[in-house]
Amino acid sequence: MPTALIADDEALLAEYLHTQLAALWPELAITGVAANGLEALRLIDEAAPDIVFLDIKMPGLNGLEVARRLDPKTRVVFVTAYDQYAVEAFEREAVDYLLKPIGDERLAKTVARLKQQLATQSLPPQLNQVLQQLAGTLPAKGGYLRWIRASVGATVRQIPVDAVFYFQAQDKYTSVITSDSEALIRTGIAELAPQLDPALFWQIHRSTIVNVAHIAATQRDLRGRTVIKLDGRPETLVASRAYAHLFRQM
Hints:
250 residues; alpha/beta; Rossmann fold; CATH 2.40.50.1020; 5-stranded parallel beta sheet; 30% strand
């Protein structure tokens, strides 16, 4: 019995794929549904599915980044909202794809193609070569976070990302620090970082990301560390040696 995993941060689309695949291919066992790239890698590692339906644009790791880490025998179907040049690249490299919004007829063609490939035991395309072509063809990653839904006690606040002074890892949570409050989110620093605009948010420590717009000054302390003063908070932050180079021109 063939197996497959669906990875898409759009819950309705993931549910549609699950339902339609069950109708079009009853023998296909869905081993899991992931809402982001990191979760997809975990579920793939646990179940080793034959096929992975990968959304290109996901938080944490995008579809291309996940695909780079797959076993070469895994068959990948990219799900994408990108058209024109990206679609031409998929077709040129003989990689199957589903263009959003996904139609029933197009999904049926993908299922037929996958069935034939599995029946003939034909090898999937060499993903490393394919991904190099696609990485240079797809539009630059965009759509950075503009709002954060974070908990302050029993209240959930909608916080503009621009208002965040810094993010700091705290055990299983991440603190969201603004000028006058501290909130919590469950997203870890490693998963959060790719969702933030790198021109505005700099990682200064493995546990800390700071909003450059709220840096008032930097200085070296007696131990040679880069100490960061904020323009509306009393505390200071310290950049680890790995990130100190970011402040050489400040």
